[in-house]
Design brief:
With 171 residues, the protein is mostly helical. The chain contains 5 helices and no strands. Helix 1 packs antiparallel against helix 2 and helix 2 runs antiparallel to helix 3. The radius of gyration is 23 Å and the shape is globular. The termini are far apart. 2% of the residues are buried.
Length: 171
């Protein structure tokens, strides 16, 4: 009997170690990912500013287009994967949560580091952001579900906004 208890105890210890190794490995991957993200973000901003200056686009338009799209790719990937796995709450919650976090935490923390001025981001840009947020309310009226035609509408509104930004730059 004592041998069986010892074997059971060893098995539990091994399982505990596997869980601990797995958990610590995941934390390590998160830390490595964050370090890479910091360097990649710096590279994205530097190169986006370089491109903007080379082709005569303002930093605001660059931030509203290239940088915004680049930094939103993780949300896009997460939401597409969640949608294909029929995890709609993850797909929509990811976007809503990300936008709330970006507006409140990211803008707030950035302002703590250094006061932020964005003279080239105008009222139209802020009104488009507000209008699109309000547009989501009727789109999710049917059980918080966005169907394909509503998805197409959202993409078309985005493309129209991009054209507005880029045509304003060309003028």
């Amino acid at each position: 009997h004592s041998r069986k208890k010892k074997d059971d105890s060893d098995t539990n210890d091994e399982n505990d170690m596997k869980v601990l190794k797995h958990w610590t490995f995941d934390i390590g991957l998160i830390v490595v990912g964050l370090v890479i993200l910091v360097f990649a973000s710096d590279l994205l901003v530097k190169q986006a500013v370089f491109i903007a200056q080379a082709i005569g686009i303002s930093e605001a338009v660059t931030g509203l287009t290239i940088v915004a799209a680049g930094t939103s790719m993780p949300e896009l990937a997460t939401s597409i994967v969640a949608a294909t796995k029929k995890q709609s709450d993850i797909a929509i919650g990811n976007i809503v949560g990300s936008n709330i976090f970006n507006i409140l935490a990211i803008m707030g923390l950035s302002a703590l580091v250094r006061p932020i001025t964005a003279l080239q981001v105008n009222h139209v840009d802020l009104l488009v952001m507000l209008a699109v947020s309000i547009l989501l309310l009727p789109l999710v009226r049917t059980g918080f579900r966005i169907v394909r035609r509503e998805g197409i509408l959202l993409v078309l509104v985005y493309l129209a906004y991009m054209m507005y930004l880029l045509m304003g730059t060309a003028a």
